[in-house]
């Protein structure tokens, strides 16, 4: 019985002290993760005709130039459920998108649009960067 109580207490302490990987992320946390991995984000030019920059479900993205010709869009939703709905709504738009990759983590949706000259290891570097914040879904 004593061992059961000790195990329960250890479990309770571990559960309470572990950071939740489902906690909402902030834009600052995502940007800091990129800076820590030496991926330089530079503010990109706004284009009101760009369908991605127009936002998803009322959430406007922050967007950055990555490796000169690539663009990274960061959508920070209020919740994971909102992020899932946002992704679904985004891909249900009646347009063909340029080459891109999608990364989902907690309440954040990250879209990386790249050209033919994209660096081969960039996808891995983005995934590694975001993995420091939690489990990345694609």
Using brief descriptors, characterize the structure shown.
138 residues, alpha+beta, Protein Transport Mog1p, Chain A, five-stranded antiparallel sheet, 5 strands, 19% strand, disordered N terminus
How many separate domains make up the residues?
A: 1
**Pairing-aware structural class of the strands and helices?**
alpha+beta
Give the end-to-end Cα distance, rounded to a whole number of Å. Answer: 45 Å
Q: What's the shape?
A: globular
Bin the helical content: 25-40%
What percent of residues are in strands?
A: 15-25%
Radius of gyration: 18 Å
Q: For the record, what CATH class applies? A: Alpha Beta
Count of discrete alpha- or pi-helical segments spanning 4 or more residues: 4
Q: Can you put this structure into words, describing what you see?
A:
- This protein starts with a helix and ends in a 7-residue tail after the last helix.
- The protein has helices at 2-17, 27-36, 80-91, 122-131, and strands spanning 42-43, 62-66, 70-76, 100-105, 108-113.
- Strands 1-2-3-5-4 form a five-stranded antiparallel sheet, sandwiched between helices.
- By secondary structure, it is an alpha+beta fold.
- The protein has one domain: Protein Transport Mog1p, Chain A (3-Layer(aba) Sandwich), CATH 3.40.1000.
Helix-strand layout with pairing:
Elements: H1 2-17, H2 27-36, E1 42-43, E2 62-66, E3 70-76, H3 80-91, E4 100-105, E5 108-113, H4 122-131
Antiparallel strand pairs: 1-2, 2-3, 3-5, 4-5
């Amino acid at each position: 019985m004593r061992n059961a109580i000790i195990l329960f207490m250890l479990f309770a302490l571990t559960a309470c002290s572990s950071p939740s990987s489902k906690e909402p992320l902030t834009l600052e946390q995502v940007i800091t993760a990129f800076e820590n991995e030496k991926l330089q984000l530079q503010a990109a030019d706004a284009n009101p005709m760009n369908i991605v920059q127009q936002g998803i479900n009322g959430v406007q993205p922050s967007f950055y130039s990555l490796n000169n010709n690539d663009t990274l869009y960061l959508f920070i939703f209020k919740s994971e459920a909102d992020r899932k709905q946002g992704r679904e709504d985004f891909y249900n738009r009646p347009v063909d998108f340029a080459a891109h990759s999608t990364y989902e983590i907690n309440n954040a949706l990250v879209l990386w649009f790249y050209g033919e000259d994209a660096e081969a290891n960039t996808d891995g570097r983005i995934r590694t960067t975001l993995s420091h914040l939690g489990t990345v879904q694609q």
